[in-house]
Amino acid sequence: MKTVLPDRQQSLVQWVSQATGINTFGVKVRLRGNDLHILCEGTECPQRWRTLSDLLQALQQTDVDILTSNEQPSIYQVFVYGRRKGEQRPKWCHRVYLNQIDKHLEQVQQALLADSEKSKQSGGALIVSNESLARQGNPEAIARYLSETLSLLGVSVQVKIKPYKPKNSQPEENRLWIFCQSSYSPDASLIAEPIAQKLRYLKLSGYQDAVIVSQVSGETAPDWLLRVDLTPPEVMLKEWARWGDVQAIARLLTEVLSELKVAVQAFLKESTLHIFCSPTFDPLGTAPIPDKVVCLEAILPQLEAIAPQGILAATVYGQKAGDKQPTWIDWLALPAAKHPVFATSPLDLANTGDQPAIIFLLERLLNPDLDWRLLTGGIRVLLLNKNDLLHIMCDAPVCPGREQVANKITQFIRQLKIPGIMGIRVYGRRAGNKEPFWHYGLDLEHRQRLVPEATPEFAATSKYVNDLVTSETSEPILRPDLTTEEVQSFVTEVARDWITTASATAKKFLLRSQLFTESNQSAEANPDVQGLKIALVWGILGLLLTLQTDWVLGRIIVRTTPSPKVASVSLSSSEHKASLTSGKTQSQKTTFFTSTSKTKSPPNQSSVFNASEFTQSDDTPTKNLAAAPLKEKATATAILLAARSQMPSFNVRQLDEQLALYKQRLARTGSPPDVLIIGSSRALRGVDPAALSKALATQGYRNLDVFNFGINGATAQVVDFVIRHVLEPSELPKIIIWGDGARAFNSGREDITFKSIAVSAGYKQAFQKTPTTANSNDLPKKTVNLEEQKTNEEKQEISTYEAVNQSLNQALASVYASYKNRDQIKSLLQKQLLIFGRNHTVASQTQLTDGTSDESTSQQAVDFDGFLPLSIRFNPARYYQKHSRVPGNYDNDYKSFQVEGEQDVAFQEVLQFAQSQKISLVFVNMPLTGDYLDPVRRQYEQEFQQYMLRLATNPNFIYRDLSQQWIKANDYFSDPSHLNRFGAYEVSKKLANDPMIPWPAK
Prior knowledge:
It contains 31 helices and 23 strands. By secondary structure, it is α/β, with parallel strands linked by helices. It is elongated. The N and C termini lie far apart (about 105 Å). About 30% of the residues are buried.
């Protein structure tokens, strides 16, 4: 017992120095796990046996654990090194087991007595290894044995034995608990298999399994748990041999016949096992052939005890290695030939749903290397058949990968065609955990059952598999095994039920009103007399309601109509009539439009609306930014022109309307614009034609016509289609500004906009039409002719309808008091609706002041130059209250990012076309905010810039990068990746001042 303490609580260095007589400067100490490393050095290398003798005597009298801190785990072994100062490697090293110090001392004393030159071998007592002591099951010896490996990783070990009481009625067992502590959190996959191998190598008896607990020093909760199956390899072999596994049977027979120096090979053909016995080692071919009687006496009892499933007989051969013909043959009947229960093969049992057979076949499938399974325990399978689903749990010291096991299992179960199984759910976990790390589902048939159910819990060991499932009363949770098709089917059924219920309710209501009857109901059930009575009652009620409404409206008109004031005698009669008819209307218009007028408010009043007609918030920036004046919106005109166009639709409304505006521009000017801007929404909002034209005028390029052909969602394929197929070469200018960025060139994502265009009638016609140039002067004439034709058709249809309408109007005018004042009633209703609409507009506009833009409303609010001006300023604090912050790795625009592909092909086509038509193509990488450019997007942007710089050597192509020009100027943006009209103004100025862009001169 180590009870003697040093006189003073000295440090380990001082204690070693005092024990060995070496100066403290020559002693270095390091603690790693349960190991203490002591380095002794001097001008001359310290003598090995003398130093060890002094140190062992000190260790015999001192408890080393007292010299360390309380947090440091127990020390099991000490490594002592000796070297000369200045050298890198020690000259000698000696390992000391602290539980065998007496034997070490005896060994050292023998070495000191012997001649140092003749006897450097260890003598005296035999040092017993930790492995031999650990095989006896001693917890401290097991800890020392494991620390030999784990201490190198800085992990200390402590082993305890705790009784374990299973939940079922099985007897109490011992469980081995191994506590690993370290200053860091070691990866379980790093040390799981080495520990499992060392524990299983001990072949411990009396333990079903071991639990390894890893914990970081100073923390109370364990970091992770690991279960190691301690089932002996012989038991594992017998389990598989019982199911007829040929490799396991051969391994067992080899162990039995190894004493006779006989090697065994076996293979299965149909239901007969063929066993070949040959000499174990016979390189010269002189070894005798195995004796038939001896071999059969050893093999037969083993096969009868095993009783392999599905193997009816065995044929045993005796021969030399390499011989083609055996020397002797014998045939043996096995238990399966006498007992039908053993005759069915494991595969046939699995087809009937036999769970033990399925488990064996799956474990054999997942553990093709038998040696590795015996060494580590391999991948273990737990099975649970619940309702129509087969749940399969796979666990191992290292969690099996989903790609490693899921496909194998599902393919195997699909081939079995187990009755009643409609789906498979596969799980993977590390041995010892309850919850799976991953799950995988596959439905073999269409499943309609959508009741929420819990994922089943699998017991930690197969022996206690009866503990596994959750209680039926547990709260339901969302099922992780539902497929998309099941969810869609469920939603469809619910919608169908809702429609059926709503239709039945409406039908009952209409039938109760007795105004409607069922179509299949007989005439006797609804006699004509009863129908006439009902019609008469409802007709009288309707007439009374009409008269009462007419009377109420008449009273309202009398009260709201002001009494006319006497006009001055100096007014002429015509002026007097005009003042009487327009006075009230003008006052109403003034009342309504005071708040929405475009005139400036008085200095002492602050307008509720900003320049873009959005309500201002309290914290609206007061900084005035330069921008081009707002132009008249072309929304109504674009819709009308697109509707009247002879060109079929492209399934993209904005493309149809932008094309209609562009065609109108061509018809009005007779020639294409001088500059065409094209691209996605970043170009649509980011380059202002008016600002660009004005800035170019200051550079000497006067009266240049600029048009913005931006389209939301336009990619390189869309731009290629518009330039080369939608527009004729004669309709294109000599310079095109393409504004966009990396995401428009991502060939890895789905191009939704181009797919919509590709299935449209306009797309087909664009490829079928001949390249003829239409005469733009005919467009106005055709429009006028269409209007005249429509007017003539309307005049022909007036005869019958208008005659009846006029007669009814005259009859009503003579009866109803409010008919003659119908215009005043209409004006009054409009006034009230406008007041309500104004309040609603203010409320809705207020919601849009949080730095957001209503895309569905604003995307068509372009001006006649095709430009979309937005005055909203991007404020991250408000913007992200309404919108989620999407990082780059979850942004679908950058999904599977790659520039090579369909977008690159389209861009190359544009470059070739521009070169052939002598068109200057300028690509502008549009600005982005710092919020948008996270590390993922920055990486993709850099890849895109390298791609563009490689292509910048092409003739007639210029690349300009403005992506990080105003990375912190949020006032220039309407959202993280789109400019507003203030930013568009700055971009337009910058492009106009670029000396490398060949602007056309008139």
